[in-house]
Amino acid sequence: MKKLIVGLLVLFMLAACSSGASASINGQWKLVSYGSASSQTSATPNVDTTIEFKSDGKLNGNVGCNGFGGDYKVKGDTVTFGPVMSTMMFCEGPVGDQEMGTLAVLKESVKFVSDGNKLTITSADGKSVIVLVRK
Questions:
Q1: Does an H or E element contain 67, and which?
Q2: Lower CB density within 10 Å: C or N end of the chain?
């Protein structure tokens, strides 16, 4: 009986550890910061931002002025974006910089790290990063 309980406990622990290693990026996220990997810029205050990764492989959101959308696919710690399309309203100043800096990362195949409530996406060249928190 003791061996059975210990065996079940070990299986439970292994299952818990393996499920945490591949945290899902599905859901709605809020922008915290963006920009150079060595010097992040905080998200513009009082601007509601959302990036949503849907379970059907669709992406949409708004991080400043324009809505955007596209396709994505996750494999391991890599997310590959199809073309991300955006509306074309003129956007300047900090909000425009935020939008351009964020959308610049959502291209090609990029690395990500997720702990469940925080998502960090690094550009393909490793120079730019966006940090998101779960909404």
A1: strand 67-75
A2: N
Mean pLDDT of 96-120: 96
Give the CA diameter of the chain. 69
How many whole angstroms separate alpha carbon 61 and alpha carbon 130?
14
Domain contains 8: no
Q: Is residue 94 part of a domain?
A: yes
Instruction: With a cut of 60, say whether residue 11 has pLDDT above it.
Output: no
Confidence of residue 87 (pLDDT cuts 50, 70, 90): very high
CB atoms within 10 A of CB 101: 22
pLDDT over 60 at 76, yes or no = yes
**Domains contained in the chain, number:** 1
Element (H, E) at 12: helix 2-21
The model's pTM: 0.82
Residues 55 and 26 sit within 8 Å (Cβ to Cβ): yes
CATH number at residue 85: 2.40.128.270
Evaluate whether residue 121 is within a structural domain. yes
Residue 40 inside a domain? The answer is yes
